[in-house]
Structures are given as C-alpha cells and as structure tokens.
Automatic annotation (TrEMBL):
Positions of the Helicase C-terminal domain: 488-658
Protein's UniProt name: Helicase-related protein
Cross-referenced Pfam families: Helicase_C, SNF2-rel_dom
Organism: Methanogenium organophilum
Chain residue ranges for the region called Disordered: 405-443
Xref: InterPro entries: DEXDc_RapA, Helicase_ATP-bd, Helicase_C-like, P-loop_NTPase, SNF2-like_sf, SNF2/RAD54-like_C, SNF2_N
Molecular functions (GO terms): ATP binding; catalytic activity, acting on DNA; helicase activity; hydrolase activity
Superkingdom of origin organism: Archaea
Biased composition annotated in UniProt, kind: Basic and acidic residues: 428-443
CDD domains tied to this protein: DEXDc_RapA, SF2_C_SNF
Boundaries of every Helicase ATP-binding domain copy: 106-284
Keywords: ATP-binding, Helicase, Hydrolase, Nucleotide-binding
PROSITE patterns: HELICASE_ATP_BIND_1 (PS51192), HELICASE_CTER (PS51194)
Length: 968
C-alpha cells in the first residue's frame, strides 16, 4: 500500500503522521505522544496500515473549560502552522522582514548552504542564524550542529537557541567536559554523542580537541565573530603571524555540509584576509594566488548577506513597520589636567618612558626594543585611565625590579609575547590565551637591563610612585568631571536622557575598583554604593549573570564594566546610556561597546554615548583625531574603517596625518623608536582612513544587495498571531493548565508583578528548575529584566503543558476527558454544533511538506445549514448558563452532531476556501521573491497545496437556554 505525506498510519500499535515515503523508507512523526518523535521505518520489516484519530465519544462529554483548554493547546502548538518558512512554525520569534532574508537566501542553495552573514552590530545575526538553523532542521537537512564563538558568547548562544528556537545545545569546554562525560556511554566521543554543541574558538583549536571535533561529520557549523578565524595578513612572507584559528576554521569548514560565518567586521582593509573568509565557503567565489586574490562578485552575491544599519534604517523608512532602532547621540567630553600634581606625574612618566626606550636601544635584541615600546605606551595609557591604575602598574613594576635585583638577574623578564603586549597597548584582542587583566599585569612587569640600570630604574619608579600618590581623588580631573553636578553621570542619574541607568566602560580592572569606591563618595546624596554594580573578566559566568540581574532590578544605577562584556552581550533592555571612562585606542572596540545598547530591541528612542578624553595628552593629540575620522567615515559610509593592522601602521599613520608635530618631546621619542624598528620606512600597505582603502572596502563588500520583498510572509504572521487569541487568552490557558496539573502558582508581589511556579512531576522539564522563581507573561518585562522568565509558546514548560493537555483529555475513560462538551447559552436560538478539525495539508515542493491547522466549522443541528467564518469565531465566546435538560436528550443531540453527513459539506467547503487562501498567499510570496531575484528550487511547488488528511478533534454542542430568542 502506498502512503503519502500527511497520511495517518498505524505502526507498532502507535499512530504516526507520514512525512515522506521513498522506495522502502517511510519517515513519520508520532502523533499519539507529546514527544513528537520522528522515526524512519524500513517498510519490508514493518506492518503499516491506514489509520485515523478516533472521533469524540458519542456517549460521554466533558466540561467546557477542559474542552477550551484542548482547543487552545492545539492552536498554540501550531502558532505559525501554515507559514511558508518552516522555521517559523517551530519558533517563538516574530522576526522583522529583513531578518528573514538569510533564510530565503539559504533555501536557494538547496542541500548545501554556505553563507557569510555580515550584518552590522546589533541587527540580530544570532536570530538570523537561528532561523536558518531551525529551517534546515525542520527540513531534515541538518541534525548535527556545531557553534564556534568567542568564549564569552557561549552562554548567550545557548540561551538564544533554547529560548527562541527550542534547540537544546550543550557547551563543551575544559570546564564543562567532565559533566558531559558523566552522561556518555563508555568510550564515546562527546563531540559525536551530543547533537548540538557550542564551543569557543580557542578551546577547539588545540590539536587534541580539534582531532576529536573534526572526526564528526557536522551537518551545520556556525562560526560567530568569524573574522577571528580569517587568515591574518602578512606584509611579507617572513612576517610571523598566528595561524592557529585560521587553520582550525579552515578544517572545520571543509568538514561541514552547511556553513554560516557571522561577523559585523568581515573586511579589515586587506583583501587577502577578507577573501580568506569567502574562500572557506568553498563556492568558487575566490580565485588567483592567496596574496592577490580575485573575488567573483556574481557568485558571492548569492552567498553574502550584508546590511549596514543605514541600509536597514532606509528600508524601515520605506516600509509600514516602525523602525525598532534608536537614534544615537555621541559626544566627547574633553577634560583638562587642572592640577599641577596630574601634570607633573604625566611629565615625569613621559621622561621615564624615554629612559626605557633609550635603555632598550642599547640592546642588540629587536624583541627587547619592540617590547619596550609597547610597555611605555601601556604605562602611558594606564596613567590616562586613572591614577589608581598607574599606581598599581608602578607597584607591579617595582616589585619585579626588586626581585631581579635580589636575585642578581640581568635576563629579560618577559611574561608575554610582543604580539600580546601590542594587543594590550592598542586595545586589541589578546587571542584568548590570557585575559585582558592578566595581559595588563604581565606588561607591567616586562623588565630588562643591567643591575646598575635596574637600580637606577628602581629609584625612578619609586619617585614616580610618590608623585602619583599625590593625585588624590580630589585632584583627579577626570573623576571630578564624571561626578560633578551637571556632569555626565549626574545628568544620567537625574533622568535627563531617559531611564536612570548608565553603563560605564573602562579598560582596566584597577580603574573599575577605583570608580566603584570613589563615585559614591563624590556623589553623596545622588548615588549610593548599593546602586553600583561591577563586572570584570575574572568573574565566572554565574557571577556575571548575578551582577547583570542586580543591575536590571535597580530603578536607578550604574554598571561599571571592563571589555569582558563589550562584545555579544545584549544590554539594550537595561540602559540607553554609555560612558567610556577612557578612549579606546581601537575604534572597533569603541563601536562594539556602543553596540551593547545601540541595537535591535532598544526601547528608548535615543541612546546617549559620552567619551571622556584627556586634553593635551596622547589621547587628545592623536587618538581623538583618529576616532573622529573613524566616526565621520561611519556616518558617511555606514561602516567603521579597519584600524591598526601591524606595528608600522601605528607610526606611519600618525606621521602621514601630520599630527606628530603636536607631540611633546618625550612622546616623539617613543614614536622615533618605532620608526627605527621598522624594516622598511615606507608607509603601510594601506591607510585605514584614506579614500582608497575605504573605497576598496565599499567595492568589495555587499551592502544592501539583498532587497527581497517579504511583506506577504510578514502579513501572514501578523494574521496568525491575531487568530490564536489575545494575550489574556494565552495567560488564561497557562494558568488554568498549570492548575489542572497541580502546579502551585503564587504572586511575588514585586514591582514587575511576577509569579512563581512550583512544577508538578508531570510538567517538570530537563534543564528547567522545579521551581521557577520569577515568571511573567509580559514580553517587555522579560526582555528588560534579567532573571525573569517569559512564559510564551516557546517556553519548555508551556510546550510540555500543551502536549500534556493534548494527551490527557483524549482518553474517554479519563476523568479529564474534554474532546466534547455541551454548553447551554442564551446567545443562540437553535441547537448548534461547533467542530474543530485538525487538517493536514501537503505542499508539492521537491520534498513534500506537511502543514497543519485547526479549522473550525459550525452547523445548525436542525436545518443542517452552516455558519459563515465570522459567526463561527463568535460561537467560541458564547455565555454559558445552567441547564435543566435531561442527560439522555443531550446524548441524543451529541450522537446526531457526530454524524459526518451533518458537517461533511460544510467541512469540505471550509477546507476548500482555506486551501484557496493558502495558495493565493504563497503564489503572491512566490511572485514577490521571483521579482526580487530569488529563484531557488524550494519555491517550486510552494503554492501547490492540497488536503492530505483530517481528524475531528473537538465538538462543542451549543444548546439554547429556555426562553432564548436571540438569533444565531
């Protein structure tokens, strides 16, 4: 016997819905269990018969409340049941149109999706990748998934996949491995055993770990912040660069069927580095030698989705949707060194730096001279950050000098590589081996020279430390500017810019400690220590989460953080103001920080950015100019320029821009030393700010090329959301369902009006605490307050509740039977039957799809006429009253209503109308996409819809109350 997609069959005494049937293999999903498990059956070994769900009992009826619960459960289980994109059928995301573009592009690639999603910071690349992953899983094109990301983004990826897409993913790392191994069969490879894993790029790159990970044939690999895995640019063949990450990503890319690269900064100004990302997509995009690649734009257009914030703003301006992005008001606050103690400290620090440079010049080893340059620049930056940071660096350095003098040790003391020291000085990434805090401390203690030179340096450092101690908080110009009446922090705490919440970013943990201690002292009566929350790199994930929850709960407060949360962390629901306590020397880092609040989901119409810049210092004379130029390019072109790429770039760029003449003598000495170490005196290969570089990035990028009209999809989602009921209907369903299954629900009596839930055994879900301490039905509260769970159709407990309701009320012998009920109401004048059918439609795509909907039909039991659609909806909300009818009479009406002769014509006409509507919607979608240049195989047959099977799920018999005279 042949079976088609959508048929109901019986296999092994269970009911299954056929998904596909090819030769001797039948794939089906079980429908008489809440687990929705899918299996593949080898037909020669199975007994398969046609089946159906039995109709409601004709001898027993349940109560109206249980029946309503059942109908709601079916509706909520298929929120986007007939949406043309299958990912929407299984997610609780209501994306905006532009976020659906990568899904459509991916579907055009058929069985091998290879894409670079390069949308700007804050546009929702995680959601876009999750939608595409869900789409591939729904179409059985992916089951084994690997996500590679920076270490600090692992938990966020795990939460997003579970929350939005119900995809359970495990984190694998040196810390998590032991827990994962406890659940493994003996001898099993965890990379193979777990279907969906999240790992950090620096964990998986080690040879031992990568060997195990690469032994698995991954269906889908997602690499977040993919620019970290691009091939580093080499100015010459002799230049040494770290290739570990690139080699790892390249091998993973070869091993994956589907591949998604996510990054907001794919182009660093070097075509070879940028092209290495496109080349790993393995789609024929790149040709020619590695050092001089050629990018085939015609091919790349089908594999790169890249939108600037400007593109999306323009798109919203022309659409009917409200723009969900805020405006940005960004200003620099120049701070003069008002106290002689500050100026003397900076002056003596510059002289000390010159002496270190002179000492290094006497050394024959180039790495000593290079390290000296980065150490001096690092110390200068620490002084510009805060007097506390400088004092700590001087203490660290003094301690190391004394140790070397005590040991009579004249060797070079170096606890980090020149590349790591450079990254520390220039606010670049230290590539995961050590934290920013540790790199900073190690840079403090890079010491060299003879014993006599060390003795002289000890005296100099002691004198400098004595000077630095005189810069008290009362004589710290920058701290005073931050905390003065009417200053940046005072204005934020008075609510001048919106909510009284502000995030202060600082580069250094020592400055963070200093601000945490001193701000409450200087803002007495305006800000207390209890209103200050701190997060820094040495905190574990649990501690960071606790601190974020603390900040979220404050009505007015300050979060002081280092760059450990400058990437990937969503803070737009907690604040709309950022203060940079010092100027990051890398504009990319500055933009990443700003992107924590200036992103999709920010409810404030404007975000406010303030950057404190010390005047007449290295900050004010050089980097302020660079940052201003970077901001102008971002405004004019819609993207930030690439920043310093190598040692020579720093020096040559400053020289070319003509700023060097403004430097104090001691600072000129520093940059003279850089020039001496350059092997070639020419300018760098590119100036990241010149027109040629910017134009090259613009020409090699793909901004705004994905103009795909998805208005039909959006309209359908809005219509579906409205059809399943109001927010109050959903809350009623969850509360009634939880109570029915003996869960305990109580109010927390907090300002967010949250509830707590103690789950019964029937509704306990792996990965969810047995007691949910804080829950809400309000999306805005859940988004804006960490630690509060939103109860929506995607929540694991709600999903379990839906399936338990569907299971428990079906059995006619069960006390909670609810497939039929009888309601007496004054709102009708004739006996009426209200049916709800589960209808399965098949779509004639290359691989047939099955979509399901609940279709209501209503018939007059006396004259057998049926009701129009608008009146059917009204019948769901009739007012019930008590009845005096005898049970025998009600049972007779129930049996009459269950005769298919009564409802057959009405059902067939309703389904035919529904099919026509779906076909029209999908034909319009097909036409829109084709007009937008989309012509993938997945569109073939998308508007070919037919009814495969149906079952009567529910019957409501509406009896008129005595004396009812209201017409139907």
């Amino acid at each position: 016997m042949n079976f088609s997609a959508g048929d109901i069959v019986s296999i092994r005494n269970r009911l299954w819905r056929v998904n596909s049937s090819e030769e001797n293999i039948l794939e089906a999903t079980r429908i008489d269990s809440g687990e929705n498990e899918t299996h593949r059956f080898y037909l020669p070994f199975e007994t398969v018969t046609a089946a159906h769900i039995d109709p409601p009992s004709n001898t027993r009826f349940g109560d109206a409340a249980t029946n309503r619960l059942l109908i709601q459960a079916f509706r909520y289980s298929m929120v986007h049941g007939s949406a043309p994109l299958m990912s929407l059928q299984k997610s609780c995301v209501i994306p905006t149109n532009y976020q659906l573009v990568p899904v459509v592009m991916g579907l055009n690639m058929s069985t091998r999706v290879r894409m670079l999603i390069a949308d700007d910071v804050g546009l929702g690349k995680t959601i876009e990748a999750g939608l595409l992953a869900s789409e591939l899983m729904s179409r059985n094109l992916a089951s084994r998934i690997l996500i590679i990301c920076p270490r600090n983004l692992r938990e966020q990826w795990q939460e997003a996949l579970q929350y939005f897409f119900q995809i359970h993913a495990d984190i694998i790392s040196s810390v998590h491995l032991r827990s994962l191994e406890r659940r493994l069969p003996p001898g099993a490879n965890p990379w193979e055993h777990y279907k969906c894993l999240i790992t950090s790029i620096d964990y998986i790159k080690s040879e031992r770990v990568s060997r195990l990970a690469l032994s698995v044939p991954w269906d889908l690999v997602i690499v977040d912040e993919a620019h970290l895995g691009a091939k580093p640019h080499q100015s010459s063949e002799k230049q040494s660069v770290s290739m570990e990450r690139y080699n790892l990503v390249r091998e993973v890319a070869k091993n994956a069927n589907h591949l998604l690269f996510l990054t907001a900064t794919p182009h660093n100004g070097y075509t070879d580095t940028y092209a290495s990302l496109l080349d790993m997509l393995d789609c024929g995009i790149v040709s020619g030698p590695v050092s001089d690649p050629v990018i085939n734009r015609e091919i790349a257009l089908h594999h790169v989705c890249q939108r600037r914030r400007k593109d999306v703003d323009d798109w919203f301006a022309q659409s009917d949707e409200a723009n969900p992005f805020p405006q940005r008001v960004q200003k620099e606050v120049l701070v003069d060194l008002a106290y002689i103690e500050e100026r003397e400290t900076i002056h003596h620090l510059e002289e000390y730096g010159s002496s270190l440079i002179d000492l290094a010049r006497e050394d024959d080893r180039s790495n000593v001279r290079t390290m000296a340059q980065w150490v001096v620049m690092h110390l200068h930056k620490r002084a510009l950050s805060s007097p506390a940071a400088l004092r700590k660096s001087l203490q660290n350095r003094l301690k190391r000098i004394e140790e070397k003098l005590s040991d009579k040790d004249e060797s070079v003391s170096q606890g980090l590589t020149p590349d790591q020291a450079k990254a520390t000085a220039l606010d670049e990434e230290t590539r995961g081996e050590i934290s920013d805090e540790e790199a900073s401390e190690r840079t403090d203690t890079v010491v060299y020279g003879s014993l006599s030179a060390l003795e002289n340096e000890r005296v100099t450092v002691e004198d400098l430390y004595t000077l630095a101690k005189k810069v008290t908080p009362a004589k710290d110009s920058k701290l005073r500017e931050l905390t003065r009446a009417g200053g940046p922090l005072d204005s934020a705490m008075k609510g001048h810019n919106g909510p009284k919440k502000v995030i202060i970013f600082t580069r250094y943990k020592d400055t963070l400690d200093y601000l945490e201690k001193e701000i409450p002292k200087r803002m007495k009566g305006r800000l207390t220590s209890e209103q200050i929350v701190v997060i820094y790199g040495d905190m574990n994930e649990g501690q960071r989460k606790d601190q974020l929850e603390r900040f979220a709960e404050l009505k007015a407060g300050v979060l002081i953080a280092t760059d450990c949360i400058s990437e990937g962390i969503n803070l737009q629901h907690m604040a709309n103001q950022v203060i940079h306590y010092e100027l990051p020397w890398n504009p990319n880092r500055l933009e990443q920080r700003n992107g924590r609040i200036d992103r999709y989901g920010q409810k404030a119409p404007v975000v406010h950015i303030r950057t404190l810049v010390m005047a007449d210092t290295l900050d004010g004379t050089i980097l302020r100019v660079l940052v201003e130029k970077a901001e102008k390019i971002r405004t004019d072109y819609g993207f930030a320029p690439p920043f310093f790429g190598d040692d020579a770039n720093v020096v040559s760029l400053i020289q070319e821009m003509g700023i060097r003449v403004d430097l104090p003598a001691a600072q000129k000495t520093l940059f003279d030393s850089f020039e001496e170490e350059m092997t070639t005196p020419e300018l760098p290969e590119h100036n990241p700010f010149d027109a040629e570089t910017i134009e090259r990035i613009r020409q090699e990028s793909f901004y705004g090329q994905t103009e795909i009209d998805l208005s039909q999809v959006r309209a359908r989602l809005i219509e579906t959301e409205a059809a399943i009921g109001t927010k109050n209907d959903f809350e009623e369903f969850v509360r009634n369902g939880l109570s029915r299954f003996r869960c305990e629900i109580g109010q927390n009596h907090d300002r967010q009006e949250t509830i707590h839930i103690a789950l019964s055994d029937m509704l306990k879900v792996p990965g969810v605490e047995d007691i949910i301490a804080k829950a809400t039905f309000d999306e805005q509260i859940a988004l804006q307050e960490t630690g509060i769970e939103q109860l929506n159709v995607g929540h694991p407990v709600v999903r379990r509740l839906i399936e338990q309701v569907k299971d428990s009320v079906f059995d006619p012998t069960s006390e909670s039977y609810g497939r039929s009920c009888i309601i007496t109401t004054p709102d009708i004048s004739r006996v009426t039957a209200l049916y709800h059918f589960l209808v399965r439609f098949t779509v004639g795509t290359q691989r047939p799809e099955v979509i399901e909907e609940i279709v209501p039909v209503a018939c007059d039991l006396i004259d057998r006429s049926f009701f129009p659609e608008d009146q059917v909806k009204e019948l769901m909300y009739v007012k019930p009253v008590g009845t005096q009818r005898k049970p025998q009479e009600l049972i007779r009406h129930l049996s009459m209503a269950l005769s298919d002769e009564l409802y057959r014509q009405a059902f067939e006409d309703t389904v035919a109308a529904r099919i026509a509507t779906i076909r029209t919607e999908r034909a319009a979608l097909k036409e829109e996409l084709t007009a937008s240049g989309v012509a993938g195989e997945w569109l073939t047959g998308i508007d070919s819809v037919s009814c495969a099977s149906h079952d009567l799920i529910s019957l409501r018999l509406l009896e008129p109350a005595r004396g009812a005279g209201v017409s139907r």
